[in-house]
Amino acid sequence: MILVIGGAGQGKLSWALRFTGLPADQVSGRPEDCPPILRRLETWLKTEEDPMPALEAYLRRRPDGVILCDEVGCGVVPMDSADRAWRERVGRTCCALAERADKVVRLYCGIPSMIKGA
Question: Does residue 95 belong to any structural domain of this protein?
Answer without folding.
Answer: no
